[in-house]
Amino acid sequence: MLFSARAEYACLAMLELAAQYGNPHPVRLSEIASKHGITSPRFLVQILIQLNKAGLVTSTRGAAGGYHLAKKPTDITLADVVAAVEGLEPPTARVKKRRPASPLAGALQDVWDRIREAYDEFLRTQQTILQETTLAQLVEAGQPPQYVI
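Above: the chain sequence. Below: its structure as tokens.
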């Protein structure tokens, strides 16, 4: 599975909220959009509604409103975020094995089987990486180096 703009924007929004975790003031949608080059605030609102329904963010209404993480950044993985906006990845469809109609069809089927196996392995690896990566880890990795003089 390659990621959609929806998943990417959701991850960016969650990372911005994670970076500001602990700040008592909610993070405004316009701040998230401008910092990360998201040109469609309406699209971002839809994404944040999904994240709210999934229990990953809370929202505050009003002039001073905005969003906060609903959990600590160490408790939210990229798999949580992607699942909230994209749903869970369905298992790869398995084609019934049948006897090839010809030797050429058999040779082609062998290639399809190898590709399917590689794709399944790719999906398993991708899911593992998403499950092991927390927002806190990415916020830390995204900080500029601090030099002591």
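The mean pLDDT is 88.
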